[in-house]
Amino acid sequence: MIDELNHVVNVLSPATNVFGGAVPTKVINMKQWGSACFIVQCGVGAVGTATITVEACSDATPTLTTAIPFLFQECVTGDTYGPITQAPATGFTTAAASNKVYKVFVREQSLALTGYSYVRLKSTEVIVGAIAGSVVAILSKGRFINEVPSTVLV
After folding, report:
1. What is the predicted pLDDT for the residue at 118?
2. What is the pLDDT of residue 147?
3. I need a surface site. Which of 19, 33, 76, 82 has the fewest CB within 10 A?
4. How many helices (H) and strands (E) does the chain have?
5. E strand or H helix at 111
6. At 1, is the pLDDT very low, low, confident or very high (cuts 50, 70, 90)?
7. 99, 42 in Cβ contact below 8 A?
8. Please, what are the domains in the chain?
């Protein structure tokens, strides 16, 4: 089945002011997965911006975190994406626009350098303005493919 190739995880539920303040997603256990793509969906909210970072985590709590570099792609018009861009560990700041989507790619190598196997996305509000949105993660390159994958939220 095609669905066995990926595991979709709701890591930040839809909300009216989803990125207000400093907001981390749920922590994902990547031990059985080779890569993750966080889909950051923003609806209404043309003013607010946030800095997006990715943190490698020592465990599910997380007890320790380390910001890591990642790749991202931005879409602020329909389904027209810009180029895939390398973001430093300090992240990038989102555009002030409604109806935008970001794909945030986390590679296994970035996690391996930290020695951690857990990851989360974190947004920190830069310009205050309520943004409706959510974040899902699509995990791929599974080490053991099952029709019903094991949970990665522990």
Report:
1. 96
2. 58
3. 82
4. 1, 13
5. helix 108-114
6. very low
7. yes
8. 2-140 (2.60.120)
Structure tokens at 126: 């830069």
SS3 state of residue 112: helix
- Cα angle, residue 33 at apex, residues 31 and 36 outer, rounded to 5°: 115
Model confidence pLDDT, tens digit, residues 80-99? 999 999 999 999 999 888 89
CA end-to-end distance (rounded Å), the chain: 26
Tell me the torsion sign for CA atoms 28, 71, 22, 132.
negative
Separation between Cα atoms, residue 109 and residue 21, nearest integer Å = 30
CA distance 62 to 117: 11
Residues 102-138, buried b or exposed e (16+ Cβ, 10 A)? Answer: bbbbbbeebbeebebbbbbbbbebeeebbbbbbbbbb
